[in-house]
Amino acid sequence: MINIILFGPPGSGKGTQAALLVERYGLEHVSTGDLFRREIGNGSFLGKQAQQYISRGELVPDEVTIGMLRQKVEAHPEAEGFIFDGFPRTVAQAEALDRLLDEEGTAVHVLLSLEVDDEEIVKRIKGRAVVSGRPDDADEGVIRHRIAVYKKETAPVFEYYERQGKSHRVNGIGSIEEIFRRLCAVIDHTLPTGSVSP
Ligand code: AMP
User: Fold this and answer.
1) Does residue 196 fall inside a structural domain?
2) Domain range for residue 53?
3) How many domains does the chain have?
4) Which residues pair with 2 in a beta bridge?
5) Would residue 146 show up in a list of annotated catalytic residues for this protein?
6) How many A from CA of 60 to the centre of ligand 1?
7) 28-31: strand order across its sheet
8) What CATH number has the domain bearing residue 94?
């Protein structure tokens, strides 16, 4: 199994690149943001719990997020691996992910961090709001709060995996194709030959 964490601040292009990587490497895409939005759309209890945090640009509590992630991973025993997009966002989530994958006899292989500066992020997310219809994309105050939460709570996850020798920074500025090529170059150089099926 090959497990990739696609990392980076909100609006750094994780969702766009995850869709391309899934196609190339035949992995299962797990986006906790998408899972929460689906729950909100279904009007479920989990969705109602999550919505209050998401609308303020806060993180959904770890217990809720980790439980949902575990269910998603366990629902795909046939998967050749996963691309985690928007998870883990705290060190506690990273530790829980490591334990979960260890139970499955596997591990995180590589963390790819898309590097994009704050002003570019704000510009991109405001542009995306027009098509995404996401209330958390439409409000500049909420966008800036999400960036602050990323720096405080999520950025330490990079160092957590760096200590395991797994973290890589990738320039997230450029065309979608250029950024995709940069990500593939790191994946292809990092993973053992023959472990992925491009
Ligand atoms: P995203 O689509 O990844 O930008 O996520 C949208 C929102 O969902 C975030 O701003 C958080 O409120 C919530 N969320 C998504 N993933 C997580 C996570 N791993 N931990 C906590 N909250 C999350």
Assistant:
1) no
2) 2-188
3) 1
4) 81
5) yes
6) 7
7) 28-31, 81-85, 2-7, 110-115, 167-171
8) 3.40.50.300
